[in-house]
Design a protein that fits this description.
About 35% of the residues lie in helices and about 10% in strands. The chain is of the alpha/beta class and about 230 residues long. The longest helix has 16 residues. The two termini are about 35 Å apart.
Length: about 230
């Protein structure tokens, strides 16, 4: 099997000329659109094999297009008009989902309550579960007292597997993730049965906007470019 060296993140081909964007476009170095034909075909066969999956993908693309206005104008200048929470609600309705799962971090309990109100106002049933549900002490997974947030105090572990299993049992049709920790979100994705989307990721320092570090990476956060921070 040939070694894969995808480098899309550093492709220097102009967007409107990229091989992944236009027919007969230019490939960058190790371009997957050119060098991974077998994987492209394999992915397409997965779509073709499942009508429900194909419809999910179709509606996701429909939703993507609807986030831009004035698409009939020539020349077209992209103009985005829908925030993510609106997108999520519209996509869920397109798919016919009625029961939504909300797995959230206890640190974003206030935001979870706001989101719950929005979702219910849009006609959805909401099953929500906080990360600390079940209150299993961190020491049971080998956390030492000095490794806790509140050193030497009893502290419940985050339990994303329990969150996922709970929503599985509730038979939610579509899950929303709100602010789970790095790694905990990974475990939720691994064990959740229903498709899951992210409302917001946790970033304790930037008010849950991790891209702020990238946008200011040549000024306030330039230290991130030094090995080991």
């Amino acid at each position: 099997m040939k070694e894969l060296k995808g480098a899309c993140a550093i492709c220097n081909v102009n967007l409107l000329q990229k091989a992944c964007w236009v027919e007969n476009g230019k490939p960058g170095n190790h371009c997957p659109s050119v060098s991974a034909k077998e994987i492209i075909e394999k992915s397409w066969k997965i779509y073709e094999s499942d009508p429900k999956l194909m419809e999910f993908a179709r509606q996701a693309s429909v939703q993507e297009g609807e986030c831009y206005m004035g698409r009939t104008q020539k020349p077209y200048i992209p103009h985005c008009v829908k925030p993510r929470i609106q997108e999520i609600c519209e996509f869920a309705k397109k798919m016919g989902y009625k029961k939504l799962g909300l797995a959230f971090c206890i640190g974003l309990a206030s935001e979870a309550g706001m989101l719950d109100r929005v979702l219910k106002a849009q006609g959805f049933e909401v099953i929500s579960i906080v990360c600390k549900a079940g209150r299993i002490d961190k020491e049971k997974i080998g956390i030492r007292p000095e490794e806790k947030i509140m050193i030497d105090s009893p502290e419940a572990m985050c339990n994303p597997i329990m969150q996922a299993l709970y929503l599985n049992e509730a038979k939610t049709q579509f899950n929303l993730l709100l602010g789970l920790c790095v790694g905990h979100d990974s475990l939720f994705f691994k064990y959740a049965e229903a498709p899951t989307t992210v409302v917001a990721v946790k970033d304790r320092v930037t008010a849950h906007n991790p891209l702020a570090v990238l946008y200011t990476g040549t000024s306030y956060y330039m230290y991130t470019l030094k090995p080991g921070f």
